[in-house]
Design brief:
By secondary structure, the chain is an alpha+beta fold. It has a single domain, classed as YehU-like (Arc Repressor Mutant, subunit A), CATH 1.10.10. Helices cover about 50% and strands about 20% of the residues. The protein is globular. The relative contact order is 0.20.
């Protein structure tokens, strides 16, 4: 069991292919990701839709990815 615990501490997560995520769910994830720090974004010259489009572009260009964390059982978008 101790070995498993050590592996989880090192494990960053499992990359989830975009085609395995329902498009509506993916959009909700991206919107939540973008609005998480909305106070910082409100000072910028970006609309919510523009920022969402940017994140989608980064996902499709493989500059970002969706990762499932095995420990917390949550998904997040991370820069690659």
């Amino acid at each position: 069991m101790k070995e498993t615990t050590r592996l989880y501490e090192v494990e960053e997560g499992i990359t989830v292919p975009l085609d395995r995520i329902d498009p509506g769910t993916l959009r909700t994830m991206v919107k939540e990701f973008v609005t998480r720090d909305w106070s910082e974004l409100s000072d910028a010259d970006y609309t919510l839709e523009k920022k969402i489009d940017q994140v989608f572009q980064q996902l499709h260009d493989k500059k970002a990815k969706v990762v499932f964390d095995l420990v917390t059982e949550t998904c997040n978008i991370v820069v690659t």
